[in-house]
Amino acid sequence: MKFRKLTIENYKSFQFATEILFPVGDDGRSIFLIGGMNGAGKTSIMEAINYCLYGAKPDEIFRNINRREKAKGNAGVSFELIMEMDDLSELVVKRSWSAGATNDPKPRDLTERLVVVRDGKRVSVQNQDIWQDFIRSMIPPGITQFFFFDGEKIQAIAADDHSEVRLKSSLEAALGIQYINRLATDIIYIKNEERKGFVEISDEDLEFKQSELKKERSKLTRKNQERDSVRQELTEFKAQLEEARARFAAAFHAEPETREAMREQEKKRLQSFNRLAQVESEIRSLCEKTLPFAITGRLFDSIRRQIEAERESISGEAIKQHAATLAKRIVRVVEDPEPIYREKLSSERMAELERRIFRLLKEGDPKGDVARILDLSDRDAARILNKMEALETSDVFLLKPLLEEKRELISQIRQLEGLSQAGILTESERELFDQLQAEMEGCSTQIGRKTEQLRLLEEEILTLEKRINDIQMEIEKLYEKHHVSKERADFIQECDVIAGVLNQFIVRLRKNKVHLLQEKTFEMYRLLSSRSGLIKDIIIDDKTYEVRITDRNGHEIKKSGLSAGEKEVFAVSLLWGLAQTSQLKLPIVIDTPLSRLDSTHRDNIVNNYFPNAGDQVIILSTDTEIDKDYYRTLKTRLSGAGSLEFDQRQELTTFREGYFWER
User: Fold this and answer.
1) According to the model, what pLDDT value does residue 18 have?
2) pLDDT lower than 70: segments of the chain
3) What local confidence, expressed as pLDDT, does residue 422 receive?
4) 653 pairs with which residues across the strands?
5) Which of 184, 83, 180 is nearest to 138 (CA)?
6) Is 13 exposed, middle or buried (0-12, 13-18, 19+ CB in 10 A)?
7) How many other CB atoms are there within 10 angstroms of residue 507's CB atom?
8) Rounded to the nearest 5°, which phi and psi values hold at 89?
9) 524: which residues sit within 8 A by CB, 6+ positions away?
10) How many CA atoms lie within 13 A of 16 on its CB side?
11) Which residues contact 419 (CB under 8 A, 6 or more apart)?
């Protein structure tokens, strides 16, 4: 398989539809170099390939939509990958996301669409899921990390001594072992499904179930007998209770009461008695404070009237005493500041008017003469009026409801004391009373216990009856299954045999694959490492995939003891070994593989790895990794080269043919 063309539209800095062609050399091989500075979009190319093949979550796509287009309301993203298959047929995979006509699109508005075209014929929509499975079978997602990788993947494999162990499932997928494992698992699943409807039954199984049925029936018989006994005891206790009640009624001429009822009555009596004491205390407090004054409450209205009358009488006398002065002031008011009559009065008439007013004021109101019983000053009168008002609004008027409550409490206490039979009994009567009460309470307790015991027995009996019915049905089914054809048993046995053979095959296949992986990895490591002469062998455990590196003396060299460059060379060698061992002819896409390597290791990678990595190798590099010298070294082997140019002002990436120095 080879990639022929990749199209990216509206993803990150690829605002407009950008096509990248991957030409193939005359020998059918292809090494294509794409240059780009940091942030120009090299990683976006890797992501575009993965998203086009396998899809992505809407949130992830929405987050990476080109910002300028998103601001315009365009939330559409599109990837297209054209591939040439091993049989030379053409496969086009186009995957897009669109939010439709939405003013303010959100991630949840994105709708994914997959279009697959094979040899110019579009696959029907109904078969999209089938074709997605087809894509995954051609390029399994679990192993793409070994074909499409960047410097970070290399560093992850080179991280520590046990990084390969954590990649076990992915390694087995790359080596093809995972599919055999799945086949063995599927056969076991089929066997288990067959066993769900088939159980091999023996005579011993039937005898065991018959014995179990006999035991359960014996339990049921015992429980029925126990239930009958409890019912008899319950009846006897009820009869004893009725007899004790009748004796109590005959002896005390009253219905018997339980001790609980008597205790409740005593509790109520004590509560009423305590409240009575509280009410009496409140009554005494009110009587001590304001009752002596409140007794005169009926005289308050007449006292108020007397005070007002005396006040008016005092005012009348004051007017009489100052009649002459008041008469002159009144006459002057008639003229000043302006006369209130049309014709001006003579001085004689004015004098006559003054004399008449004087006589009127001097005489006063005959009805205003009041006997001064209280003879209070204005200050004393005001104090008395305030005191009467305070008394009328004081708590003393709560006395009446308190007295009523007291009478009710006394009546209630007498009634409760009358209900207590024991309080008025003689010693012999009280002894009989206690005896009958104890007997009735004992019977009531036993009745409660026996009733609960009977309820539990009824439940146990129902459970046993259901269990017996279930066992009987099981026995009937066992008799039916006892005569099942032996064919299904033989089929299940064959599944076990096949699964065993597959497991043995997996063990041998893993050994062979791991041995081949060792050889291929060591082969590339010797070409790439600057210390290859010091290393004798690379050994990979065929169970855990743990890698051991040994020197010429047979001593183990820990991977953690290698330099950073040697670790990365080992990781690249392992990736190449996996690609060779898997026998999958997939393109190799490498992003910034030389960033942490020294010059010696870079020379080895450029001269020995890139030309041999695969039939198609796509290299994504900066100008400091594949510089002018390395570019001259690779140029004769390149099928083409291109550059990603990033405009920071417009945040736009465009693709052009030719590497950094080629125009």
Assistant:
1) 95
2) 124-128, 151-171, 174-175, 197-202, 252-263, 265-266, 288-300, 314, 316, 318, 320-322, 335-343, 345, 361-372, 374-375, 390-399, 415-425, 480-487, 531-533, 663
3) 47
4) 646
5) 83
6) buried
7) 13
8) -75, 160
9) 572, 573, 576, 577, 608, 609, 612
10) 6
11) 265
Which residue is listed with tokens 């080629």?
662
Q: Which fold has domain 1-139+587-663?
A: Rossmann fold (3.40.50)
| pLDDT, position 11 | 94
Cβ pair 587, 618 in contact under 8 A: yes
Residue indicated by tokens 């005569």: 483
Report the pLDDT value the prediction gives residue 219, as an integer from 0 to 100. Answer: 92
Q: What is the pLDDT of residue 8?
A: 96
**Token pair of 582 as six digits:** 């898997």
Specify the DSSP element, H or E, that contains 410: helix 399-419
Cα separation values, 78 from 48, 207, 295, 495, Å: 9, 70, 102, 47
Between 486-528 and 177-196, two packed helices, what is the crossing angle to 10 degrees? 160
Say what the pLDDT of residue 533 is. Answer: 67
> 3-state secondary structure string, 435-498?
HHHHHHHHHHHHHHHHHHHHHHHHHHHHHHHHHHHHHHHHHHHHHHHCCCCHHHHHHHHHHHHH
Strand partners, 81: 6, 93
Read off the tokens for 116: 């697959």
Burial 124-162 (b: 16+ CB within 10 A, else e): eeeeeeebbeebeeebbeebbbbbbbbbebbbbbbeeee
Please give the structure tokens belonging to residue 660.
Answer: 């950094």
Residue 186: predicted pLDDT: 86
Nearest Cα neighbor of 319 from 271, 280, 268, 357 is 357
Q: CB-based burial of residue 53 (10 Å sphere; 0-12 exposed, 13-18 middle, 19+ buried)?
A: buried
Q: How far apart are CA 171 and CA 514, in angstroms?
A: 10
Beta bridge partners of 641: 33
* DSSP 8-class letter at 346: P
* Locus of tokens 């030719």: 658
The answer to whether 230 touches 450, Cβ cutoff 8 Å, is yes
Which amino acid, 498? I
CA distance 498 to 293: 114
In tens, the pLDDT along 145-183 reads 778 877 666 666 656 555 565 566 666 776 677 778 888
Cβ–Cβ under 8 Å, residues 227 and 457:
yes
Sign of CA dihedral 479, 481, 483, 489: negative
115 pairs with which residues across the strands? 94
Question: Where does 361-425 show beta strands of DSSP type E?
Answer: none
The token pair that represents 545 in the structure block? 């995939």
Contact 116, 136 (CB under 8 A): no
The rounded distance, in Å, linking the Cα atoms of 133 and 113 is 15
The residues that bridge with 149 in the sheet, in sequence order, are: 590
Q: What is d(CA 231, CA 234) in angstroms, rounded to the nearest whole number?
A: 5
Q: Locate the domains of the chain by residue range.
A: 1-139+587-663, 157-198+488-585, 298-382
Task: Say which residues have a Cβ less than 8 Å from residue 55's Cβ, sequence separation at least 6.
Answer: 95, 112, 114, 132
Query: Which two three-digit tokens encode residue 2?
Result: 């080879």
User: 525 in helix, strand or coil?
Assistant: helix
